Amino acid sequence: MSRRVEPPSGWPPPQTASLAGTALDLPALAEAVAERYFERYPEDLDRYGDAARAWERHDTQHLLNWAVGDVEGWVDLDAQVRWLAGVLDARGFPLDHLAGNLELAADVVAEQVAGGTAVAERLRAAAAVALER
Fold first, then answer.
1. 16, β-bridge pairs
2. Quick one: pLDDT band at residue 3, thresholds 50, 70, 90?
3. What is the enclosing helix (H) or strand (E) of 19?
């Protein structure tokens, strides 16, 4: 059974992040992650309806930005993932899906971002943090 989920509101996701002086197109990366995410978790389309894709891209853009910020030294990705996991857990969202999203994001970054190895490693490590709750 699906329930009505509102589309994202509040703090909009960033459109770019700067890694070693190179601007990354976060919407494009998030879309690539979303494609893989819904191949792995198609049930989320039924569960969350029309808002599923918008939330997936929204949260992934934030996660990618935080991962880049962690590598660049201005944010703590693990702390942000713990916070997001708390919010999602309170809403009944399966945290293994959050962990899977982080793993998929790591794969996309490793494949599509020149010099993105450290970001991909941080995303993979954060997947374990998401499951700590």
1. 25
2. low
3. strand 16-19
Burial class from Cβ neighbours inside 10 Å (0-12, 13-18, 19+) for residue 54 reads: middle
| CATH 3.30.70.20, domain 24-130, yes or no | no
Instruction: Give the pLDDT of residue 2.
Output: 47
Q: What is the dihedral of CA 13, 117, 128, 59, to 10 degrees?
A: 10
| Secondary structure (3-state) at 22 | strand
Do the beta carbons of residue 100 and residue 41 sit within 8 Å?
Answer: yes
User: What is the average pLDDT across 81-103?
Assistant: 97
Q: Is the pTM of this model over 0.85?
A: yes
Give the residue from 130, 45, 125 showing the smallest Cα distance to 84: 130
Please tell me the distance from the alpha carbon of residue 34 to that of residue 99, in angstroms, as a whole number: 14
- Asked if 113 and 29 touch (Cβ cutoff 8 Å), the reply is yes
Question: What does the domain layout of the chain look like in residue ranges?
Answer: 24-130
Asked whether the beta carbons of 123 and 102 are under 8 A apart, the reply is: yes
